[in-house]
Design a protein that fits this description.
single chain; alpha/beta; nine-stranded mixed β-sheet; 15 helices; 40% helix; globular
């Protein structure tokens, strides 16, 4: 595989039997290929990476040529109804050694949901076409029994990534799990600043130990990083990239600071000029040959643009199930459509997907934060997300903006 064109050709031959066997009409087959090509074109800003005989276009589509990759592309064979969601983030526990100021689960208080309910939801989601499971905590390795049981319940129709800080990780545990990668939090390249950000004086050594164990176990290392605006002006961004390169990372996900959880009341931190500077640096590292040895960057500030994906929450392309069992449109949107402890998952999921029937350009976590914060204060709450009843007050009034070009165009192709 030399480039994306070769993969597209191989994907064509993978699906050609559908046409030859009469399982798909010629018109629908061409429409399917156009849809898939249009979707992949929206990731042209990403860095194409090859490793271990596979390749990736971005953070949210599984590795080619895995079975999970074709689960993700299968979604574009759906006509006449909303496309399946391809990604889910599931939290298996709220247990964590850290006390991160920004954490979007900062106010998520409650008992961890019964494991069987999470496993049941995961199996149903696989049948619905979810191709990528991101599993997190808290720290998932603190409850390794739950982590392993959930991973064991997910077959190879889907790819599994685990978000971790390195605590309670061992080489033996890594080898036991059927996972595609570990994603470590890397929010500052300086040990002392990192420890302060994470709220624990032993955060840095556990990060380094975890990275080393992944390499020993043969598990790919990736990072996510939540950087403030200053990081793109004072050299911090470049130091983070140097650290990621030096420690053998494949990819790094750049998370835009969000008004959620611990930062629910915060005002937007990036001006349009700041975003322009950040995007310029991301593009340079992804596309300039000078930085070919650096990991690929996927960035929310680019993916959320109206001409890329817009808002993918609510099962448009991804959603979140928290450790208590709340089904949320996004980890950064502190509202709930119901809890799997109280109601069947399918009913909650269907209700949420109906609310998000038409994908929009508006980034809802940023748009709705003040309303969520006002309700949190008005009702003197001590936990998030908002209850389904209070959540309705948020989503019944919001304006989601224009329909997202990507999903609008994909839906129109072949109709």
């Amino acid at each position: 595989m030399k480039n994306t064109a070769m993969i597209k050709l191989k994907v064509l031959f993978h699906y050609l039997p559908l046409l030859l066997k009469g399982e798909m009409s010629f018109g629908r087959f061409i429409a399917f290929l156009r849809r898939l090509s249009f979707f992949l074109s929206k990731m042209r800003h990403n860095k194409f990476i090859e490793f271990n005989g596979g390749a990736r276009f971005g953070f949210y589509i599984p590795t080619y040529p895995s079975r999970a990759f074709f689960t993700a592309t299968d979604k574009f064979k759906t006509f006449g109804e909303k496309l399946p969601s391809a990604n889910v983030l599931m939290s298996i526990t709220s247990a964590c050694m850290h006390n991160c100021e920004y954490c979007y689960q900062k106010r998520d208080k409650g008992k961890d949901v019964e494991l069987g309910l999470l496993i049941d939801a995961a199996r149903k989601l696989q049948d619905m076409g979810v191709a990528l499971f991101s599993i997190e905590g808290g720290e998932p390795f603190l409850r390794y029994d739950r982590l392993k049981a959930l991973c064991d319940a997910i077959d190879d129709r889907s790819e599994i990534w685990v978000n971790s800080t390195g605590w309670c990780m061992t080489v033996e545990r890594l080898k036991e799990l059927r996972i595609a990668a570990i994603t470590f939090s890397l929010h500052h390249p300086d040990p002392d600043d990192y420890n302060r950000f994470m709220g624990h004086e032993e955060a840095w050594p556990h990060l380094l130990q975890g990275i080393g164990m992944c390499h020993e176990a043969g598990v790919p290392v990736t990072f996510n990083t939540c950087l403030m605006r200053e990081a793109f002006y004072n050299g911090t961004f470049e130091k983070v990239m140097d650290f990621a390169k030096e420690h053998g990372a494949l990819m790094i996900q750049l998370i835009k600071p969000k008004p959620a959880g611990g930062w629910l009341e915060r005002e937007p931190l990036f001006s349009e000029d700041d975003l322009k500077v950040a995007k310029g640096k991301i593009h340079m590292y992804n596309k300039d040959k000078k930085y070919a040895a650096y990991p690929a960057i996927t960035a929310q500030i680019i993916e959320e643009q109206p001409d890329v994906f817009g808002c993918t929450a609510g099962g448009t392309d991804r959603f979140y199930i928290n450790a208590k069992g709340d089904v949320q449109p996004c980890e950064f949107l502190n509202i709930s459509f119901g809890n799997i402890v109280d109601e069947e998952f399918e009913a909650i999921y269907g209700r949420m997907r109906k609310c998000f029937e038409t994908p929009g350009e508006c980034i809802l976590c940023e748009h709705s934060a003040k309303k969520i914060a006002a309700l949190y204060e008005q009702y003197n709450l001590n936990s998030l997300p908002l209850s389904p009843e209070l959540s309705r007050q948020v989503y019944s009034e919001w304006d989601r903006g224009n329909a997202t070009d990507l999903y609008k165009t994909v839906s129109e192709i072949g109709m």
